[in-house]
Amino acid sequence: MTKTRHTLTSVLMIALAGLMSVPFYYIVVNTFKTQEETTNSPLALPTTWVLDNYIKVFEGTQILQSLMNTVYVTAISIFLMLAIGSLAAFGQITGRSRTSQIIGAVLIAAFIIPGQATLVPLYRMLVGVRLVDSLEGLIVIYTCGSIFCYYLILGYMRTIPAEILEAARIDGAGPFRIYWMIVLPLIRPILVTVGVFQTMWVWNDFITPNVFISSEEKQTLVLQVYSAVGQFTTDWPSFMTLTVIVLLPMVVFFVFMQRHIVSGLVSGSVKG
User: Average pLDDT over the chain, rounded to whole?
Assistant: First the structure.
């Protein structure tokens, strides 16, 4: 019965995976077709495999500049989110004051507020400090994702035996040394897991750059796809080519990092 159940589960998962891969297959295959082929036989393989659409996209759009913008915003945002989230979690588990409890309650309130509800106040605040239409402004907004990092890291950090931290204090280690030399190595799995989640969020986010970025040279990759809807109104192969260029880095990134997602979450659920 167990073997049969495993076989049925595998068949079901393979069928679902095949179904979910159809849209991606549709997009990739049509990047090698002409407009006429895409219209007449969208799911068929191209009669001739050509790279004209990729050449057209790289020559006709600022895709490389948008790629550098996205990498810049994503890398700095993830670093700040992990640093702030882990430091806040460390302060929470080591602090016993009334202040730390109040801060925790405020963070819970901030976490449950939808981001869309704060777009107008955020826009006015960034106008006041002249960060609208700047990559640094996006970084500031994404850094607010430290709250999500904080809660995931906090749950994992609570699995660290208190005796380890207490022994370090007895040996004369200060708070920062305990954090840097003991806590950080122990929470590395959850840092990788949270980093993967937040990287995919920042890379694929559309609402934030669409609201706060107006200059073409500061656009992220997702905004390039949005702009291509008008630029390639009838040129669907070029539009799909741009979509593949945007999606491919995250697909490769997720394939290589997916095992860390599972290991980080599972490790944090087992104490000791």
Answer: 85
**135-152: pLDDT as tens digits:** 999 999 999 888 889 888
Phi/psi at 180 (5° precision): -75, -40
Cα dihedral 85→90→92→93 (10° resolution): 140
Concatenated DSSP letters for 115-160? GGGGHHHHHHHHHHTT-TTSHHHHHHHHHTTHHHHHHHHHHHHTTS
* Distance of alpha carbon 177 from alpha carbon 199, whole angstroms: 28
Residue for token digits 């200059």?
215
Q: Choose among 156, 167, 182, 148: nearest CA to 93.
A: 156
pLDDT for res 271: 46
CA distances in angstroms from 57 to 23, 24, 64, 157, 211, listed in the order given:
21, 19, 10, 46, 24
The residue-averaged pLDDT of 124-138 equals 92
Cα 193 vs. chain centroid, distance in angstroms?
Answer: 11
Tokens coding 70: 């996205």
Q: Long-range CB contacts (< 8 A, 24+ apart) of 221-224?
A: 221/63, 221/66, 221/67, 221/69, 221/70, 221/245, 221/246, 222/70, 222/246, 223/66, 224/61, 224/62, 224/63, 224/66
- Out of 53-62, 168-177, 192-201, 225-234, pick the least confident: 225-234
Predicted structure pTM score: 0.85
